[in-house]
Give the backbone structure.
Amino acid sequence: MKQEEQIIRTEYSELMQKSYIDYAMSVIISRALPDIRDGLKPVQRRTLYDMYELGIRYDKPYRKSARIVGDTMGKYHPHGDSSIYGALVVLAQDFKMGQTLVDGHGNFGSIEGDGAAAMRYTEARLQKLTQEAFLADLDKDVVDFVPNFDETEKEPEVLPVKVPNLLINGAEGIAVGMTTSIPTHNFGEVIDGVIAYMKNPDINTEQMMQYIPGPDFPTGGVIANKDELTAIYSTGIGKIKIRGKVEVEQVKGGKERLVITEIPYTMIGANIGKFLNDVYSLVETKKTNDIVDITNQSSKEGIRIVIELRKGADAANLENLLYKKTKLEDTFGVNMLAVVDGRPETMGIVPIIRHHVNFQYELAKRKYTTLLARELEKKEVQEGLIHACDVIDLIIEILRGSANVKMARACLTEGITDGIAFKSAQSQKDAQSLRFTERQADAILEMRLYKLIGLEIEALMKEHEKTLANIAEYNEILSNRAPAAGHAAGRKSRAFKPCHHVRRRRYRPARGAVHCGNQGSVCVFDARCFRRADEPLRRTFEHAHHGHTVEKNKIHAGLHRCLRCVRAQPRTAARRVMDDRLRRAGVYSRARAVFGRLRHLHRAFAAGFTPAVGEATGFEEIIL
């Protein structure tokens, strides 16, 4: 009977639902998603704080990674050494982070997917930026400290980060039922955007993009859909189209070669090898005959993939083929999801900066409140010492006449003279009027005799004046947000100016490529016009552009061939998708309009019209 009373009967489905929700929230809040305030996941935050506690500063010798991992796991993060070391490695990889937070020494992996060496071989220490912008002011009560997993240590709930790390270094994480994917941004541009928001809190996304025009990936590359960035930054969701940077180099014998010096951010790791295999496949399946050889000459200096071309090959045609058939053009899915006030939330770029600025105000308020309290304590002690110097003879008489410290302290704080031997009644009367505070009395009792030297007293007076000036400054900062904003903006501009680096990304107009291998041509289209890289047609257009008479039938035949090369493909699902895209992009209607313009220009050329150099004729929209 007693055993039956101890059994708690509950619905199994309800128990499973509650347990799964608890697990999901634990993964979302405590494992996978970054905090909006410092942009760090818990494992990253704990690793950096442990390195700070171990004293592994940027100006100190490196320490073994195994030492850092073991200390972090034993004190703050009991989830296995692999996750901690993996986070430490990523924090030191400049091809994944917009701004590295850890200075790694040893093999920390490569952009081509090589893994880092075992933790017993590598060493690490904090970067200067991390120490100054992430971990400074922890001793000023700027953030709350919470107990660790076994309540034997204290760890910060969030780091007092002075820069919007969520935008600078981005984030990637997979939680239960949700993911986050935030691109990296240029350090200097983000700081400029924060300062602009401080000066104008009503700034919108379009205005903010004047300071932060787009992502800045560590691997560089070209952003092809710049027009869509405004919508992405407004909603926090979208896709960014990234292309590798391809340069055409001339070699001996009149040949050319394509050199890839920057790759999409999504290609790092094993995808570089996959890209090389995809290029090999293009040659093996005879989708192109222009490639002679491909070599990966990448090194520590950067990416360099060389594609040798046969003589007379069309480099522009092959470049578009690579964009179409390989990972040289890829999409980066954006989902700006972060933990805000304990809940996951998707935000645009302006709300992220707004949360960062509000966090900075909170840090500044707590910091200057703490500094003000310290200055007030210092002022209290300094005033007590100054007053003590004025009555130093009486204090010495009290100390010499007291039997113990307790008796002397009671006389200094409350004027109690019982049991103290004075030389005169006047001295006893003066002692009864003393009313030092407890802090002042302790300072007087601990004061050394050399403090009575004239120069030391003068230094004490100057220090007291400085303390009063600091109190006035801190009161002004705390009483009004405007001085705090100006102080924070100036501090960011001065302190982090050395961290500004050159922008890596570039922009090109959104333009897709459709390769038609059977005719050796590329049809490129967008939402405005239809273009064709057909050499005979290009020469015809250029011939007309320079004022020569052109046969109308040649132009019409060229455009008709251009449309047929797309419409002649088999009736497959891919063909239907392409046909639908061409129709929605207005290609067919645009082609009819071009025919009408060409007829008009043909009549003008036939009548003797010769355009001046640089004069628009209407052919610019259809010449690739």
Observations:
- Residues 510-556, 559-569, 609-624 have pLDDT under 50 and may be disordered.
- The first strand starts at residue 63 and ends at 64.
- The two ends are 89 Å apart (CA to CA).
